[in-house]
Each structure stands twice: as C-alpha cells, then as structure tokens.
Amino acid sequence: MSTLSVGTVSATELSVANAASGSYFTTLYAKANTSGTDATNAFAKANAALANTSTTLSGNLAITGTVSSGSNYISPYTGMKNRIINGAMMIDQRNAGASVTPASGDYTVDRWQAIASQASKYSVQQNAGSVTPPSGYKNYLGITSLSSYAVTATDSFQLRQPIEGLNVADLGWGSASAATVTLSFWVRSSLTGTFGGALFNSATNRTYVFSYTINSANTWEQKSVTIAGDTSGTWLTSNGIGIYVQFSLGMGSTYSGAAGSWSSTLYLSVTGAQSVVGTNGATFYITGVQLELGTVATPFESRLYGYELGLCQRYYAKTFNTSVAAAEGLGTDYLFYKQNTTYPEGVWHFPVEMRTAPTVTKYNFRSGGSAGQWTNSSSDSSNARVLTTTTRWAGFDNTAISVSASQWWLGGATASAEL
What we know:
It is a single chain. With 419 residues, the protein is mainly beta. It is built from 2 helices and 28 strands. The chain has helices at 36-50, 305-313; strands at residues 4-5, 8-9, 12-18, 24-30, 55-58, 63-64, 67-69, 72-74, 113-116, 122-126, 141-145, 156-164, 181-189, 193-200, 207-214, 221-227, 241-251, 256-257, 262-263, 269-270, 283-293, 316-318, 334-338, 344-349, 359-364, 384-389, 393-398, 408-416. The strands form 7 sheets. Strands 22, 23, 24, 25, 26, 27 and 28 form a 7-stranded antiparallel sheet that branches. A 6-stranded antiparallel sheet has the order 9-12-17-14-15-19, with no helix packed on it. The chain is globular.
C-alpha cells in the first residue's frame, strides 16, 4: 500500500490513473496552499485511490516540504547528497587495513584525520576487532584506547574530516540563507553515556557542538543530529576547508561547552562527555557517516567503490595497488624511460585532478635499495628528484647519473593534497 503525504500543494488538478487499464478513476483539486478539512479530504481520496494499485499521476503538482511513501522518506535532493567522502570507511589507501598509532594530523582511513594532543593514546584500524558491521555495511573505522589517560584542560583527541569548500558552497553558511543540515552515523563503543562532537569552520571561530548518547555497550546504534546553518562567520567555498566534521575521543575543559547552538569560541565537545582515551582498551567504532542538506536523516548514500576511490584520490593517490600500503622495496612499479643521453626522466599522471599541486614522496622499487631512489633492478640512481608538480601530473628526473640508452628505471610514489 502506498501513502501520499505532502506539505503544501499549490493550485493544481491532479489525476490518478490505474496503470493496468490506463483509466482515470479519481480526480482531485486542491486550492492554493489549502489546508484543514478540504486538504484532508482531498488527500484521503488520493490515498484511497493509490491503495494496493500501481498508479500514474498526471497534471501539474507543486510541492513544498517533504514527500513520503509508506515508511520511506523521499529526499528532495538528487545527485551526491552526502558531503562526507568515504563515510562507509571502505577506502584505506595508506594502511591497507593495518593498525596504526597516528601522530596528530595523520590521515588514517581515507579522508579521516586523527588529532591527538598527546602521542600514542589510541590506535586506528579499518575493521578493528573484526566485529560485524551494521546491516548494509562492509567496513568501519575502529579506534582503540592504548592507555588510561586523564585529559587535561587543554587536551584534544579527535577523529575528523575536513570537507572541501567547493563541496559545501551551496549551503550558504555565513549568510542569512544558511541551510540546515543533518549529520547521521552508526556508532559502537565499549563505553556508554554521552558523547560529543562538533562542526566548525576553517578559522575555528564558528563552532556548533552536538551530543549523542550510546545506550548499550558493544552494540551498533544509529544516531542523527540536525543543525541549523550558521548565518555568521566566514565559511570557505573554495578548495580550502569549508567545514570540519569532528567526533571527540576525549576533550579537555577548555574545548568543552554546551551543545545545540553556534558559538564564536572553539568548543569541540559537550561538557561531561565520555573520554575514549580515558579507559585502557576502550573501543569506538564508526561507519555510515553522512552530512546532508535538510532536516531529516535519509538512508545512507551508497556509492560504487570506483567512484568513492576517485573522490578519495583527489586528496591522496599512489602508484601502488590500492590494497598495498606504500613502502620501500615492494617491487611494485611505475616506469621511467631514458629520454636523453644523460639521465632518466618520467611523468606520473594522477588518476584524477587533485585538489592542489600535491606533495610527492618517492619510493625505491628494489628491496634493499636506497630509499627514495629509482632502480634498474641492479643499481640505484643517486639524485632522483621531483622536478615539477601540477594538479594533474608530477615530473621526475635524475641529474647525477648517466645511463645506457633505452634503459628502464623503476620507482613508486605517493601524492598528498589533503586539506
């Protein structure tokens, strides 16, 4: 059975046709912005007509508000509704599923950055603990506390994603027309109680703290929070940082405040929130993170693996297979060809255009070879260098070695254009 539910209907005539026979079996007329008994009766007739049949609606229908069909919410937005990249945690180019203890600022699973005011307080791993993800998901990001650390006033431990300004420009934040957004996610922790997080701008002078409650330990729970857009402050709409979305793993009192409103003070969690780093072995797992326009948390936008990988590669790319973490001496490639009589040269074309000209790191192909140098499988270069980079390619050469004509040289590289 289908249910037609709308907000405000403009003046129109709406015909409902039986799909099997094509005959029109009911027609209703709704006055402009009508409400009350007339609207109730009109939609009662429409719902009765739609019951247990396949129907076609003809005529002009203008709707303000939301549309639902039965228990399903129909989003009024098309295209890429989720502004979070890799919200399902399925891309892990840097670590290929291995556990890492990140330094502050390191990126872990693609697009997710670890912040830690004290070193070695937690580890991060795709699918840490090998628990079953929520239905419909294959991966999650897992955080494990490595000690029982009591946070001080100025401590800050975070998991966050900086969203590029180009991807949130339509929200209009910083103006009178700032749009409302909804953040939703699946979370599981060995701890229960109140947890916190925040959205904030690149200047860190406009912050919205949110809170959520984990009711049962070691159980996946879905959470959502609706946030009225900020009408103040500066929110970048360039290729810089537009919005930070941040989850607290332990926050000092300096960065803790009340939830539910915008502030010019850098608050990153709600006062009294749980501290994951405060309990040795505590776990915090998260997946299905979605930030979307509107006041309702809609079903998670699942995207094809190759599409999601391309979104991630705008910020980090590598010559290595996606399932292989970059390292020296792996025997994986790309190739350099001797193009003149004195030194090898090569060009790496990135898989997608990167956010900005990236920082490129070189790796030796040969096991036991000199770090960052190119090899012909028996000897290494001595002055391999990144000659130039653009958002589309990187050029390399070596000015300190003479090679035989047409000789191949091998090496690997990564490119980072993270925010």
